[in-house]
Each structure stands twice: as C-alpha cells, then as structure tokens.
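Write out this protein's structure.
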Amino acid sequence: MEYRQLGRSGLRVSALSLGTMTFGGAGGFAKVGHTDVGEAARILDRCLEAGVNLVDTADIYSDGASEEMVGQITKGRRHDLLLATKCRFPSEAGANGAGSSRHHILRSVEASLRRLGTDYVDLYQLHGWDGQTPLDETLSALDGLVRSGKVRYVGCSNYSAWHLVKAVTTSEARGYERFASHQIYWSLIGRDAEWEVVPAGMDMGLGTLVWSPLGGGLLTGKYRRGTQPEGGRHLSDWGEPPIYDQDKVYRVIEALVEVAEARGVAPAQVALAWLLARPTVSSVIVGARNAEQIGQTLGAADLALSAEELGKLDAVSANPLPYPLWHQVKTVRDRLSEADHVALG
C-alpha cells in the first residue's frame, strides 16, 4: 500500500481508504447497503491486512449507526487507524440540529466521539457548505477543537472552488487551523470537479479525498448496455451520483472493461487506478457490502496504468470545457513551453 501526504499536512494516509456508508443500513441509507457489525469487522480486517490506515464515516450515516459500528470494530486497535468523520447535515431534532454553527459543531463532535468510543478524531470534516452561518464562526469552532485535542486535522467536503478559497484564506488571515483536505465526488463518469474544484484545492495545498469513485457502482462492470444487474443502488431512487448522459456512461464502461480484460483485472480496479493517477489525490475512499467485495477492490492499490491506457480512459470520459475555461485554454498558449503545447494538442 502506498501512503500519501494529506495535502500540506504531515499526516500520511493510505492511497485507498475505507468508506462506511453501507454500515448499519438504517433509514435512507438502506438503499446503499446494510452491512452488519460482523461483516463490517471482516471488511476492516481485509483493509488492515492490505495496509489501509484511514476509515471514513459521518454522523448522518444510518442515523449514527455507522459511527457506532466503526467504534465497535476498531476497539482495541484505535491507534492503528486514522478515523475521519463529518458534521453539517441534520443529526438531531430542533432548530439548531443542523448546519455549521459553533453550537451544532460542538454538539456534533461530542456525539461522534461517544459513538466512535474515542477521545479524538483524526480528521473532522464539514460535510457541506452552510451559507447561513458566518464563516468565521465555523472556522473558529474547528480551530478550538484542534486546540482542545479532540480533533487532529480539519477538512471539508462538497465545497465549490470559491468556498475552498474563502475558507482557507479566512483561516490564514485569522490564524485558525486551515483545512488539510477536501472530500469530493470524482470518477470516470463524474469529472466536473476538474474544472474548478480540483485546481482550487491544488492552489490551496489541500489533499483530495475521493468519494463514490466507482460512480455509485456503475463502474464495477455489472452495469452494461442492454442488460440490468440483479441489484445495485442505481436500481433504487438513491439518485447519487446523477446520470445526465446514459450513452456516454456506457461508452466509458465499455472502454473500462476493454482495459480491464486486457490486464486481467476487474473493471473497478482500473477505475480506481485511473483516479490514483490524478493530481492532488491523497486517498480514494472505497466501500463494500461484504469482505469479498473489498478484497477485490483493494487490488487497485497495486495497479499502475500505462500512459496509453490513461489516455484512452481520459478521452472517452472527457467533458467539454465550460466558459471561461475553453477561452483560457485557447489563449494561454503564449505562456506555455513547447512541451505544454504538445500536451494540449
């Protein structure tokens, strides 16, 4: 297993990390999976054997059941792992039961610590932007958690580019703990983040954690043109990630399967290996409903794609550039080296 720096921090995280959204299966999250504690323990065992050192969860996953299960299966080996969790979305009743206010952040972290059975979280992430709470209040609360020792590093998830820039520059101006990472959706069928979010994170020195790297299971190879699998979240009304161009999705899957068959590996491994080759990626978060699934997925850590394979996948999955990016690419050539001109074509 390769270990990578989490942005500009000194923390090293495994290139693949364990996502736990399938743990518990309560409420709406039952559409994603309903892994019980016994199977969750077996999944974690496989991950530890492969060298995974980061486990990612959130307070809203199965109404806290995911955090509780993570606490149970990591008991006795807490110091062998890095635990990441999140807050922002509704986690309790009442007018202040959601958001990124100091009130909700402090209540949320205490509840997460109890469920996880630990006295500190390695990475505490804002699960989304809150446009109603003053940013200074949010960042001050996170800074206080780091200073108290209850949180080691802070990050965010699902922020737009301007959110990232505003948050990091505000932290630097106020002397607060700055984000070490941002967690985003990124896959061969979801490359929108490359337009603005990834470059902003790169400029701010943030490590990128990737969620749903297989497009909600579409890139496992079981979804094929003209056929329908027996089960999967895209057969429910889960709705994430959204699909806007089904024909393009199938073209990507076909190219993915072709590369995978030539290599003698699973399509999912190729999709993950493609992400691991992208800039700024610190760790790709992978989940599973059972230990057999996670065992197959973890093989991606040892798969390095050739330039030809990467180019093929890049071409079939590329999105047309929106304005002003198409204009910038067209006009930036006077600032580029000869090698850069060749790369742009």
